[in-house]
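Write out the 3D structure for:
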Amino acid sequence: MAEKWQPQCGVELEPNQFYCSVCLDLLKDPVTIQCGHTYCRSCIEGCWDQEREKGTYSCPQCREAFSPRPVLGRNNMLAEVVEKLKRTVTQQARPASPLAPAGPTDIACDFCCGTRRNKASMSCLTCLASYCPAHLEPHHSFPVLKLHQLVSATVPLKEKICAKHNKLMEVYCKTDRRCICYLCTMDDHRRHSTVSAAAERAAEQVKLGEIQSAVRRRFQERQEELNELVQAVKDFEICCQPAVKSNDELFDKLISSIQNKRALIKELIDARRKTAVAEAEDLQMQLEEEMATLRRRDADVEQVSHTADHIHFIQITVLEHWIPTLSTNALSFHGNLNE
């Protein structure tokens, strides 16, 4: 991360404020367009060259459109500030750059000797070499080397060098859709459509901005749909609450009614039981009395049956009613119990 630059007036400036949003590097020949955003002249011109057929030219950041194509004017004050910032940041960064041995995935310094080389911090696209902070020092000290283009050592330089001509790939071939060096444009890619890598980067930056805008719009749409769904669920839950309450009230009434019916039927059964028991007790007394009478009659009949006097036997059997009238209450009571 770049250190803050603090001028003599005491105001702290962040170097990131002076980076071009297209090439992501410090501004080179800065120009400010009508919406207020500032870019490298080559970057914004590359973007607008890609929009020439549409007839409208937009800002890569805020997407404000302009027609006709604006005339670009150099921002001299900002150019001076950026130039001073470059020198100040370079001077502040050099003492704070520690030396560290290069790991398996790091870019090693091309000028370190021995088996243990230091980790490279910057790569020079002019020298086509990577440097650790110690060996990078001449690029900060000698005026000629200060003109070289330095980039962070994030990927091996061989990935940026043409394998055929051993030159930096600074050109993009639209026909073959790959990066090439300027010598390739003279032989294998002579009749192909080519542009500078910076111009292609600017064009792709515009496309990337459009994709990002589309993704954000899609995200916003999905966010709105999600909010609507959540609200619909809440509304549905609110609507269900009265239905649940009404259902509970209905079943409470039904349960109460059933319980009342149960108690009433229980009372009716208990009353009928008591009546039946009382009737049974009365009938039991009658039956016991009749049984006692029948036992006496049985004894009398037994006695008469053994008499030897024929005339006396006939007189008794004719005059006496030996079998009493039986009560029918027992039969009727039994039938009532079965009803």
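Residues 1-11 have pLDDT under 50 and may be disordered.
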